[in-house]
Design brief:
With about 200 residues, the chain is an alpha+beta fold. It has helices at about 5-20, 50-55, 160-170, 175-185; strands spanning about 65, 75-80, 85-90, 95-105, 115, 125, 130, 135-145, 145-155, 170-175.
């Protein structure tokens, strides 16, 4: 195990045992993005560290943002989880660094964003910006109990609107209760996503 992997592993286990905050700012991306969980059948064979860290960064959030898959051309750039905030960056091809920036916090100011029909259950969605000449720039917010996720899109090129639609379908949420069951199943009940104070 290299030093980065060891640090990441220690943060995950420490967070599970004590509820501490942790930060991952690595020059190389973590081995795993925060993946959306499949239906839990039996005991999980691995622990999705970035997903757990994201959940613990905003402990009151009913939902946790995740990635269903990365479409062709999209690559994982960076991940940071600390007390009160998780951030995720994705690139598109070689000319669109930070084409998507996600920020997960307990609340957010949507400013003059307009309310839009939500495509995610249990959320209220707001949008700003949109298509420009050969580009798509804009923000999207999802508010829900105890949390808010903001996506900032900055995509250049003739296919920008389609690229934004494609990556939007690849992003989702995990219900906190499902994630709690996942952690407990993985650890045979030894670890808890939300340890009780002093526990």
């Amino acid at each position: 195990m290299n030093r980065r992997a060891a640090v990441a592993g220690a943060c995950v286990i420490g967070a599970l045992l004590s509820g501490c905050s942790a930060s991952l700012n690595l020059s190389e991306p973590p081995a795993d993005v925060p993946h959306c969980l499949q239906p839990l059948i039996g005991k999980p064979d691995h622990l999705d560290g970035p997903l757990v860290l994201a959940a613990q960064s905003v402990p009151g959030a009913a939902l946790v943002p995740c990635v269903r898959r990365l479409p062709a051309g999209w690559t994982f750039r960076d991940f940071s989880a600390q007390r009160g905030r998780t951030r995720l960056w994705l690139n598109l091809g070689t000319d669109n660094e930070n084409a998507l920036e996600m920020t997960f916090t307990a609340s957010c100011d949507v400013g003059d964003a307009r309310r839009a029909p939500s495509d995610e259950s249990g959320t209220v969605r707001f949008d700003t910006g949109g298509v420009e000449a050969s580009a798509y720039r804009g923000d999207r917010f999802y508010r829900f109990t105890g949390g808010c996720v903001a996506y900032r899109f900055d995509v250049h090129g003739a296919g920008a609107p389609q690229a934004v639609r494609t990556i939007s379908r690849a992003l989702g949420f995990v219900d906190r209760a499902a994630l709690r069951r996942y952690v407990e199943a993985y650890s045979d009940g030894r670890f808890h996503l939300d340890p009780s104070p002093g526990g």
